[in-house]
Amino acid sequence: MTDYFKPHERDILFRRFEELTPEMRSTDKRIDAHQMLCHLNNSLREICGLQPVESQSNLFKRTIGKWLVFHLTPWPERNPATPEALVAFVGTKPPTSFAADHAEFVSLLQTFDDQCARGTIGPHPHFGNLSRAEWGQYMFLHIDYHLTTFGIHGDFRAPA
After folding, report:
1. Per-domain residue ranges for the chain?
2. pTM for this predicted structure
3. Cys bridge to 37: 83, 101, 127, 152, which one at CB 3.0-4.6 A?
């Protein structure tokens, strides 16, 4: 099972993330690398309690939905149909640089790590309370999904 907290898998994610450049666009050409960074940063700010978020959790999402996402189906991302919906999902690029947002991403991941280690991470907006193992799987899947949409793949076989 994939896990952000496994050093080998985390190192590969970080090496893959370093391949991302500001000029890159997703394979479907709908978002650029800076927009993806903004989306990940917004998500991390919400998860870490640094940005308000309304819970969209319900009994189905916390039970069957969570099980499907973590154990059965491919990573489900929304596919906004309109430019307005895409902006609402991804967010708009702030007047900061790609490099600044990349540095913020690394910093927010450290905040996420610290909160998970202390057991102070809040509930996920859709899936509710997650165990440390579920948070590790979630974070891996979320980052991996977005890197893959930019054609940045990784080999997660354990080193010999």
Report:
1. 7-149
2. 0.83
3. 101
Task: Round to whole Å and give the CA distance between 11 and 145.
Answer: 16
Determine the residue type at 53.
Answer: V
Query: pLDDT tens-digit profile of 75-113?
Result: 655 454 555 555 665 665 666 899 999 999 999 999 999
